[in-house]
Amino acid sequence: MTGTLLKTITINQRGADNVTISANEFVAGMYLYSLVCDGKIVDTKQMLLTQQ
Known about the structure:
- The chain has strands at residues 29-37, 40-49.
- By secondary structure, it is mostly beta strands.
- It has a domain at 26-52.
């Protein structure tokens, strides 16, 4: 993992509870993603992306 920021998604709609991204934008591998609210990291999770 290189620690490079790959994408930022801004959610302007209040109450939005999911975000869909296209896996075609990324190569297979392990990714970390974070939920940031008011400039603070609320949570960080891992995602394993495989190619089919």
